[in-house]
């Protein structure tokens, strides 16, 4: 598929989706959100994709937020719809994606940009990354899941402070907060992230999809995560990957998972 605002390429099992509006610091306008949805959907359906890495083009930004110029004159109703549609099309879609999604945060990740990185399953940042949810400085609040996912990742007090001050934290503070898992130099970011993706790809993709559902169940209202874990655990026993994984171990060889 041809996109206007993003690039998507697949190599060695990794689909790299790059938000590509560097002149606007990769701000997420409606078209970009739709294109990201389409690219993720394409990756979901492609047997060539095992892991997705999402990043931003240019040296300055991952994503500097939702495109402010698009919603500056919105009404209450339009504002609500903007958040609802974005969450459904992209942010929840990514968070519940069945294949691992890693955000390679290569610069500013602000507002919707940090929300997108937080929707990914985990994050790696380069040393020049700056992260924050500055929405209250615009008279609005995070609307793409930020008020929920930031406290889940860093704790309530830190999330309250970061959102109330509209401040930015650097990569080392984000590492200390547990918002990102690793920090690299800008030059090493993609290689490091791809290496991690390579480690993931050696494992059973079916079991990984199960693990994502079980972990995410902890954050769903009215769902008992332990019950989901029990069900997902049981289901693994019916997969070809489980048979291959256990046989390979017993036969002292490396598993070659069929992904079924
Ligand atoms: N929406 C729309 N356009 C944006 C944007 C956003 N969230 N973030 C940056 N841009 C645009 C700027 O308007 C500018 O466009 P122009 O050259 O046509 O005027 C271009 O990207 C470059 O940004 P600029 O502000 O000149 O870069 P900078 O290095 O001086 O500052 C930031 C970088 C990230 C500090 C600054 O761009 C910023 O504060 N952006 C908004 C962040 C934000 O509030 N995000 C939350 C939105 S809900």
How would you characterize this protein structure?
The protein is of the alpha/beta class. A hairpin with a 2-residue loop joins β1 and β2 (14-19). The chain folds into 2 domains: 6-201, 2-enoyl-CoA Hydratase, Chain A, domain 1 (Alpha-Beta Complex); 205-250. α1 packs parallel to α3 and α5 (146-154) crosses α6 (156-165). The two termini are 27 Å apart. 47% of the residues lie in helices and 17% in strands. The strands form 2 sheets. A 6-stranded mixed beta sheet has the order 1-2-3-5-7-10, sandwiched between helices. A 4-stranded mixed beta sheet has the order 4-6-8-9. Coenzyme A binds next to α2 and β6.
Q: Which small compounds were modeled alongside the protein?
A: coenzyme A
What is the CATH-assigned architecture of the largest domain? Answer: Alpha-Beta Complex
Structural class: alpha/beta
Q: Count the domains.
A: 2
Low-confidence stretches are none
Question: What is the helix fraction of residues, given as a range?
Answer: 40-55%
Overall mean confidence score, pLDDT: 97
Instruction: Look at the structure and name the CATH superfamily of the largest domain.
Output: 2-enoyl-CoA Hydratase, Chain A, domain 1
> What is the element string, with H for helices and E for strands?
EEHEEHHEEHEEHHEHEHHHH
Spatial separation of the terminal alpha carbons? 27 Å
Helix count from the secondary structure assignment? 11
Number of strands: 10
Q: From the 3D structure, determine the CATH topology of the largest domain.
A: 2-enoyl-CoA Hydratase, Chain A, domain 1
Oligomer: single chain
Strand content: 15-25%
What's the arrangement of strands in the largest beta sheet? 1-2-3-5-7-10
Q: What is the general shape?
A: globular
Cα-based radius of gyration, to the nearest Å: 19 Å
Please give the CATH class of the largest domain.
Alpha Beta
What does the main sheet amount to?
6 strands, mixed
